[in-house]
Amino acid sequence: VFVSVAVPVPQLDLLTYAVPEGVRPPAIGARVVVPLGTRAVTGIVVDSRETAGPDVSPDLIKPLKQILDDRPFVPSDVVELAQWTAEYYGAGAGATIVAVLPPKTRGNRADAHKTERVVTATPAGLASLASAAAPGAERKRGSTANVALQLLSRAPDGLRAADLKSHGVSAGVVARLSKLGYVSIARARVERDPFAGSAATLRTSPDLKAGPTYREVVGRRLTEEQTCALSRLRELARSGRFHVAVLHGVTGSGKTEVYVRLAADVRQSGRQVLMLVPEIALTPAVATIFREAFGDRVAIQHSGLSDGERHDQWQRIRNGDVDLVIGTRSAVFAPCERVGLIVVDEEHDASYKQEETPRYHARDVAIVRGQKAGALVVLGSATPALESYANALSGKYDRVTMMRRILDRPLPAVTVVDMRGEFAAEGPDVILSRRLREALELRIERREQAIVLLNRRGFATAVFCRQCAGTLDCPNCSVSLVVHGQEASRRARCHYCNFSMRIPAACPTCAGPYLEQTGYGTQRVEDEVRRLLPAARVARLDRDAVRRKGSLSSLLTRFRDGEIDVLVGTQMMAKGHDFPRVTLVGVISADVGLGMADFRASERTFQLLTQVAGRAGRGDEPGEAVIQTLYPEHYSIQLACRQDYPAFYHRELTFRRAMRYPPFVSLVNITVRAKTMSAALRDAEAIADRLRAADESQDSYRVLGPAPAALARLRGEYRSQILVKATKSARRMACAQVVETVSALPGVARRTTVDVDPLSVL
Ligand code: ADP
Ligand code: ZN
After folding, report:
1. Per-residue pLDDT tens for 208-236?
2. pLDDT band at 296 (very low <50, low <70, confident <90, very high)
3. Whose CA is nearest to atom 19 of ligand 1?
4. Of the ligands numbered here, which is closest to the C-alpha atom of 479?
5. Whose CA is nearest to atom 18 of ligand 1?
6. Helix H or strand E encompassing 144
7. What is the number of the ligand closest to the CA of 500?
């Protein structure tokens, strides 16, 4: 018997090994140790069969060294899902299998569990505590040793040495008590609880106002729309067959409540739930509600956890101790065996696409997983991806809509400010329009909160020379540097490769002394809001502000608790939050994304504006949005202001049809990197030629390019690009052709990235 094994080595595809005579073949999903060159590595069995395959001589196949599991370590359907992902996205099996393994079992270290010292009081220790409390023992009572014994007397299962330490009891004191026979020390396996620790908003302590509790939620009466949506989804889930439903619900229509009840229903039927969210820290209310609803039987999987925490969570899921997994995109590979429901919340969100190999889209993998498991997949959004909505209209997916906000709260009233007029009246440097300034002042007066969005980080977006018109550019990338930091320590930094430099006094090109900082980002807006509203408490939320672990959730908690009046930030703020006291959303430069030469630019802008406007007026007071733009007549902006998704959908679809873009065709984006642009173009030409020659009929796909990529230079390398547009029916064939063609040019393949269904073609 021969087995195909995926080893967690990125460049490697499936490897074939022989099962030694007389050994029972391993199960699909079991771990095996295999020889690889001079090394021995652990891999996962993906497939087993009687023959070695046509192109391999059985004599050259090495035997397995060891079989580590007699039952699958990774459930076999998850192995199958990983294999589908590897094939569909043209990624190696080696790169993909990593996605389904728990951290730290990569390589040979199979089991890494955290153990900790746990201290327990002995009867002798408790007795000494009692005598210390007796009259005349005054002096002993306040001692550290006594504090330790007191703490331990209230903890029959003992306390971790680390917990004692946080009460000032050092390891030395514990050792002394142990010598006296007052305490015993044992090593115990401890599961790290990701809900504890720094992610403050994930805690469920009652003093944290992270939104309604589960009990409050289930105690509520659903609105008529929620009831209808729930009963339809319930019906689909109970059928036990594969379905996809798009839950199109406007912002504030109460989708979370529907998910929770649906999940509870699925759990009752003995099946598990996968709940995917764009980012855990950005949806604390969702995490909290599910945590309360499912108690211990929830596992959480996201990139903010340490490897150890992820490992423990993975094991709990694998052991079947969990009914619901809530996590970011990688949770779609969670090792569950009885999945009955997969919810993809905010399914349009770009963070579901992994921008490194394997370049999978978690929503699309979720649909494949649902299909294999006979599960219901719910795609929830106020602004569904065009692809999803097209499938819903064509009847391929179910469509469930909730068009009204809870308690019939109105959607925010939107005002568009034409910045051309504003510049004419107020001068070219104005950042906050008069309309927005007044609206902000009103919020401070009324003690309500506001959000100000600018989807661009930094202080100034370029350093410009007035003498030679040059800009300060990154030496490694074809972009200009962005100015960051406080006045005294301001530096120019590259957003792609992180190169940074002090801002020179003179232009490096012409030595002219007239360097000017132009354009502005969130830091500048933050300063401006502080200057205009000295009484307001202002904070900023963007990737620079939340680099430290835990700082994002603490910022959000402070905002929710009313310790911040105005939050300035990037699109991070637009995602799924529910801040009932926000009554104003201001958008600075709504057209930031429209200038990009990307076919999704309009869709992204529409989604962002609709989502961020949707943060206003979710409580008792109605909301308002002020949108500043240079292109007030652009349809993405117009229709986002009216929050008219169907109109946007039809308008955008016309453009996509005319230009042959998704959802009408499938795209594969091929990027080739090289030391010079001519080499990058030449290598790409070789790929393009072969692709064109392979498509004899000339009608299943079209090859565009090669051309220099929009970002022509990145991290010191030049980039060229080929775009393959395939008809729906030819998509698999085209992808396979691309993968085959690229791998036939091994020298080029190492410098080539294949992106199937790219979100962006920049
Ligand atoms: P969405 O995700 O659709 O934007 P949410 O699920 O965040 O909306 O719900 C919006 C707000 O309405 C939340 O504060 C939520 O607690 C509240 N809510 C949801 N359903 C109900 C209901 N049936 N009755 C009262 N309040 C509700
Ligand atoms: Zn750079």
Report:
1. 334 556 666 667 889 999 999 999 999 99
2. confident
3. 254
4. 2
5. 254
6. helix 144-153
7. 2
How far apart CA 41 and CA 144 sit, in angstroms, is 50
Over residues 272-285, the pLDDT tens digits come to 999 999 987 766 67
Ligand with minimal distance to 286 CA: 1
Residues with CB under 6 A from ligand 1: 212, 220-223, 226, 249, 251-257, 406, 578, 618
Residue nearest to atom 23 of ligand 1 (CA): 222
Atom of ligand 1 nearest to the CA of 614: 4
Question: How far is it, in rounded angstroms, from Cα 625 to Cα 452?
Answer: 10
* Per-residue model confidence as pLDDT tens digits over 363-393: 999 999 999 999 999 999 999 999 999 999 9
In SS3 terms, 236-293 reads as: HHHCCCCEEEEEEECCCCCHHHHHHHHHHHHHHCCCEEEEECCCHHHCHHHHHHHHHH
Q: How far is the CA of 716 from the centre of ligand 2 (A)?
A: 8
Nearest to 674 by CA among 613, 748, 756: 748
User: Percent of the chain having pLDDT more than 90?
Assistant: 55
Residue 47, classed as helix, strand or coil, is: strand
Rounded distance, CA 84 to CA 6, Å?
A: 13
- Which residues, in sequence order, are CB contacts of 418 under 8 Å at separation 6+? 629, 630, 632
Instruction: State in Å: Cα 252 to ligand 1 middle.
Output: 6
Cα of 463 vs centre of ligand 2, distance in Å, is 15
pLDDT band at 724 (very low <50, low <70, confident <90, very high): very high
* Separation of CA 558 from chain center: 22
Q: Which atom of ligand 1 is nearest to the CA of 255?
A: 3
- Ligand 1 centroid–CA 253 distance in Å is 6
Band (pLDDT 50/70/90 cuts) for residue 492 is: very high
| Whole-structure pTM value | 0.84
469: helix, coil or strand? coil
Give the residues across from 325 on adjacent strands.
274, 299
Burial class (CB in 10 A: 0-12, 13-18, 19+), 488: exposed
Is residue 382 within 8 A of residue 251, CB to CB? The reply is: yes
For residue 28, pLDDT over 90 is answered with yes
Peptide bond into 123 cis (omega under 30): no
Using most ligand atoms within 8 A of CB, pick from 578, 585, 607, 645 the residue to mutate for ligand 1: 578
Ligand nearest to the CA of 405: 1
At which residue do the structure tokens 């080539």 appear? Answer: 752
| Residues shown for the chain | 762
Distance 493 CA to ligand 2 centre (A): 8
Ligand 1 pocket mutation pick from 218, 228, 257 by most atoms within 8 angstroms of CB: 257
Atom of ligand 1 nearest to the CA of 249: 3
CA dist 760 → 143, 475, 536, 599, 661 (Å): 64, 24, 38, 8, 12
Q: In what side-by-side order are the strands of the sheet with 324-327? A: 298-301, 324-327, 272-276, 339-345, 376-381, 243-249, 398-402
- Non-local (6+) Cβ contacts of 491 within 8 A are 483, 484, 485, 500, 501, 502, 503
- Range name among 282-291, 321-330, 476-485, 643-652 with the lowest pLDDT average: 282-291
Q: Give the H/E segment covering residue 313.
A: helix 307-318
Tell me the ligand closest to 614's alpha carbon.
1
For residues 682-699, average pLDDT:
86
